[in-house]
Design brief:
Largest sheet: 3 strands, parallel
Radius of gyration: 13 Å
Distance between the termini: 5 Å
Number of domains: 1
Strand content: 5-15%
Order of helices and strands: HEHEHEH
CATH superfamily: Response regulator
CATH class: Alpha Beta
Number of strands: 3
Structural class: alpha/beta
Length: about 110
């Protein structure tokens, strides 16, 4: 959480099922510290209520696994349009553009 508070990330990808926390908890914590960027919840549970709950907590969207690289790239690219100094994302290297921090590693 400290990394999100102290750094300037445009997009944070959060998994619903994590070892020490749920994605719902992380979304709430990110919004509580007034994280201004996009929050994307990822889950392998294809149930509509999950997306509804995530968005009610402040997530921008929910992506269902298995993730489609083109869908993720499109979302990241769309988020870049709103960033002040957006990094360039290479289509072949889209995963390296995503910084994921495990819950509880603050």
């Amino acid at each position: 959480m400290a990394a999100a508070k102290d750094a300037s990330y445009d997009v944070v990808f959060v998994d619903l099922a994590m070892p020490n926390s749920s994605g719902f908890d992380v979304i709430e914590q990110l919004r509580a510290i007034r994280f201004p960027g996009e929050i994307v919840l990822m889950t392998g549970q294809h149930q509509g209520w999950i997306a509804t709950r995530a968005e009610s907590l402040g997530a921008t969207t929910t992506l269902f696994k298995p993730l489609d690289p083109d869908e993720v790239l499109a979302f990241v690219s769309q988020g870049e349009e709103h960033a002040h100094e957006a990094p360039v994302v290479d289509e072949l290297d889209w995963l390296s553009a995503i910084n994921v921090q495990a819950a509880g590693a603050s």
